[in-house]
Amino acid sequence: MRHLLFLAVGVLIFSCDALSLQERGSAGQPCFTDGTCLAPLTCVEDICVTAGGGDADNEQSDDQTDQPDQTDQADQSDPSDQSDDAAIPDDDTAAPNDDTPLPDDDTVIPDVDTLPENACNEGEICWFVIDTIQNACYNLTGSVTCPSEGSQFYGQDGNYAGGGREFQNRTTSGPTLIDDNQTKLVWQKATDGTTRSWNDAESYCTGLAGSNYGDRTDWRLPTRQELLSLLAFDAQSVEALIDGFYFPSTPADSFWTGTNHGYNYYYVDFSGDGMSYSDAPGTLHQVRCVSSPWNYLPARPITRWGETTAGADTVIEDALTGLVWQMAFDYDERLWADALAHCATLDHAQKNDWRLPDINELESLITYGAQPEHVTTFPTIDEDYFWSSTTNAKDIAKAWVAEFKYGIIRPDMAKDVNSNGIRTICVRNKD
């Protein structure tokens, strides 16, 4: 019976037209809180499916997974006024979410290899980690020839230059759009430069969908992960941190996302000067809308983390990204150069090709929507800031960091100071 239920849900998800995000009660989305769906859909395993899908029209699971109520989550403190040596937000600023229901034993967990191509875990990335496009190397004061192995500052982002990005103009009967061939997202090429409240930003994207903007009707606010995928970490001037050819005249400003954080919503700062965090809905930010093929499943249907032991060490393999992480890491408060050297010389789990993660790799561990008090499902990582190997190319004396309590991405931590207790975790590619 369980296999038939999963098959019915899988077929429905795969066949949804445009696979745009719908409200609760729609096909492939969570049931209403009373266990019903919009007619003629039926609630099965807390997912709305077409009646008549195998035995799903006659039976509904009594063991449905409860979803956390965001209205019960506390407001988050805003650390945006912190300086380089400011303290990390206090753990007590957000109420713990200990009452969040756990999935019942009967929850269907399909194998990752059997998921539809366009299925994606809600709150997590839907693609392999993309290139930061930071190809240059830096010391504490300027750009340098990328150092060789064993030299100071070896192991930074520029030492592992990737393949770049794959944007493409899409011609329509109206405005030109931008295809991202790596994430499969379609973006507005031009924005109107207007700052809006979150509600007005959401209405703006809904209005684009209703007006058939660019021959598409599924426009919406991007998720935090989607919007972060546009950040370009090679900018060295006042322009926004984005590909200026495909996204010209983008303001060096912050942009709303549709991802909530307690009562607030995340934004992404493209200026390269401030953090990407969350704000109250009444705050004014820019907006760039997205059209997406992804169907964001609410139940996290795959087992993401797998433990592997080699020698005396255990590592964590990430099924979503293909990266391998240290499971146990020390709490030494290193400077940036020392963090680079620590990972570059690490002999762990019988491997010696470890490196300090770039900011996109580090950010992939953040699971937006998991809990406002600890936004990651990584098994052992704590709530502190962690160094990335990515330099702030607009302020070379500083590096990008991420933290896992509130989901903050910051460009403003001085490389030669560690008064915030910034930690180090190392990563490698799976063999």
Strand content: 15-25%
Order of helices and strands: HEEEEEEEEHHEEEEEEEEHHEEEE
Instruction: Provide the number of structural domains.
Output: 3
User: Which strand order do you get reading across the main beta sheet?
Assistant: 6-7-8-12
Determine the oligomeric state from the structure.
Answer: single chain
What is Rg?
A: 22 Å
Which of globular, elongated, flat, extended, rod-shaped describes the shape? globular
Helix content: 10-25%
Provide structural commentary:
- The chain is 11% helix and 20% strand.
- It has 431 residues and is of the alpha+beta class.
- The chain has three domains: 2-65, no CATH class; 66-107 and 142-155 and 311-431, no CATH class; 167-293, Mannose-Binding Protein A, Chain A.
- The strands form seven sheets. The chain has a four-stranded antiparallel beta sheet with strand order 6-7-8-12, with no helix packed on it. The protein has a four-stranded antiparallel beta sheet with strand order 14-15-16-20, with no helix packed on it.
- It is globular, with a radius of gyration of 22 Å.
- Residues 1-23, 52-78 and 80-112 have low confidence and may be disordered.
